Amino acid sequence: MNIFQQVDFKSHAGLDLSWKIECDGVSKKEWKCLAEMIMDYEKRPFQSAIGIPRGGVLLGALLNQYSTQKLGDPYLIVDDVLTTGGSMEDFRTQYFRNRESKSGSFGWVVFARGFPPQWCRALFQM
Fold it and tell me: Rounded distance, CA 14 to CA 50, Å?
């Protein structure tokens, strides 16, 4: 499966796009490497990594090996591809809606087609 595909599709945000980053083509070994790459740049401690379903789930699980499990540390929210940042913002809002978190959160994505929110970083920025 090709990771970069020239195909018309509608993004999660409802945008009509002419190319796609299909992360289903990334192997588990490559996801493990991507998690390591994130950790090469990220020096902040985090209590747990939370992957946004569906694309960020495996990445979150792999990043959890680096978590502190300390209640006072922030959460790390991760996803595979960011287009508008809406999924990251929506997930963070919904996830903490019924949870008390004074420790906050920050985020990482592997690919960013657009500019991520200020609280989020990207390994690869388009």
Answer: 24
In DSSP notation, 40-74 reads HH--S--SEEEEPTTTTHHHHHHHGGG----TTSP
85/11 Cα distance (integer angstroms): 12
Q: Where are the beta strands (DSSP E) in 31-88?
A: 48-51, 75-82
| Alpha carbon 24 to chain centroid, angstroms | 14
- 11 is written with which tokens? 């993004």
Q: Is the dihedral of CA 54, 95, 74, 61 positive or negative?
A: negative
Handedness of CA 3, 5, 22, 87 (dihedral sign): positive
Spatial separation of the C-alpha atoms in residues 47 and 67, rounded to whole Å: 5
Quote the tokens at residue 119.
Answer: 């609280």
From first to last of the 126 residues of the chain, give the pLDDT tens digit: 888 889 998 887 788 988 888 898 899 999 999 999 999 999 999 999 999 998 899 999 999 999 999 988 999 999 999 988 988 999 998 887 877 666 789 999 999 998 999 999 999 998
- Cα–Cα dist 68/65, whole Å: 9
